[in-house]
Amino acid sequence: MRSWPTLSLPELPGIGPEVRVFDSASGAVKATAPGPTARMYVCGITPYDATHLGHAATYLTFDLLGRAWRDSGHAVHYVQNVTDIDDPLLERAVATGDDWQALAQRETELFRDDMTALRVLPPDHYLGAVESIPAVVEAVEKLRELGAVYDVDGDLYFRIRADERFGSVASLSSGEMLEIFGDRGGDPHRPGKSDPLDCLLWQAARPNEPAWDTALGHGRPGWHIECVAIALGTLGMSFDVQGGGRDLAFPHHEMGASEAHVLTGEWPYARSYVHAGLVGLDGEKMSKSRGNLVFVSALRMLGHDPMAIRLALLNHHYRTDWEWTDADLPAAEERLARWRAAVSPPTGPRPDDTLLRMRQALSDDLNAPSALAAVDRWVDHQLSRGGDDPSGPGIVTRACDALLGVAL
Ligand code: 5CA
Ligand code: ZN
């Protein structure tokens, strides 16, 4: 699948510190210790509706991580999927009378436009579930040979007991897992399953639904194995970060880690599992199924500067859940205008301390609000007293671009 256009990042003096992030599996902030090339897989959209601010906040989180890694001297190998075949997409297509493929293509295109406008660096591999069906089939066949698969009326299930490490990503009790599994696409009550938490790897064709003829029969892929097949095919095992919103920790990333462990005999799947908090509106998680959405594209159509949208999102720490309010965007627009006014004179205050603080904040669990505050300090100083360092405005502009993705 086509990714979106890349951006060249401006050079900064010196190098950033090693990046630390909160890993859900160990429950602590820990150093990401990538080799020369950091490897990251971030779960992509299910393209049945436009990108809302919750999605955007999650993709910005991993964009910051990629930028911090680059600043600390690493190359980045970044992979993202598109779940372009799944129940919610088919349900939406039926409800609106759309062709499911046309719907997926349209919404994926809009997502690319939103990511481009927000200056999110593109993945190196952007792969859809449909184009990855051969890789999924190969993975499920291998799991079957290893005895980790059973059949319920033609549907193929992954046996979680095949993995003695199952449960180590999200660290939930079995009661919690059962409750969440049903809410997030699982089918704990289906008769014939060996364990209520076993998950679908391959679903046999249903009437009036798309299906593919494969060695597994006529059907379509399950969700978790899609990401495993794509991640292993591009990054291999033990990549540095598996990312997504907090709602993906269980079951999605838990199942992915187990399937990959059984498949390869290796551990870990990802060295860190990084989860962004959920953005809400009116007291509820912003979600396509609830319909309480603010779309990035709608804000753009209203003429809001994407850099202000970006600043509004970065003003919240990625790990906390937060609520979007009508005050977020005007505050970000005002901040953006001040920043732009401050970098326009030829000289300004010395930027060294600002750059240092921005780097420290971002490398310490992606503390974007603190990095924004560091820029605010320089801006306040410039707008109140000015400065005579000819490198000041240029370095602050470049740091905002390279580290925060905010073009001034
Ligand atoms: N296609 C799967 C992942 S393989 C999926 O979850 N798609 S999604 O379109 O539902 O979500 C895309 C990403 O946005 C996921 O990482 C999800 O966790 C995140 N996300 C969804 N809603 C919110 C929200 N309200 N706040 C923050 N992130 C969100
Ligand atoms: Zn995924």
Q: What features would you describe in this structure?
A:
By secondary structure, the protein is α/β, with parallel strands linked by helices. The protein has a domain at 304-404: Anticodon-binding domain of a subclass of class I aminoacyl-tRNA synthetases (Four Helix Bundle (Hemerythrin (Met), subunit A), Up-down Bundle). Helices cover 42% and strands 17% of the residues. The chain has 13 helices and 15 strands. The protein has helices at 53-71, 87-96, 100-117, 133-145, 174-183, 224-234, 249-264, 296-301, 306-314, 328-343, 352-363, 368-385, 392-404, and strands spanning 20-23, 28-31, 37-42, 75-82, 125-128, 149-152, 155-158, 199-204, 212-214, 217-221, 239-245, 270-276, 279-281, 284-285, 322-323. The strands form four sheets. A five-stranded parallel beta sheet has the order 5-4-3-11-12, with helices on both faces. It has a five-stranded antiparallel beta sheet with strand order 6-7-8-10-9. A three-stranded mixed beta sheet has the order 14-13-15, covered by helices on one side. Helix 11 runs antiparallel to helix 12. Zinc ion binds next to loops.
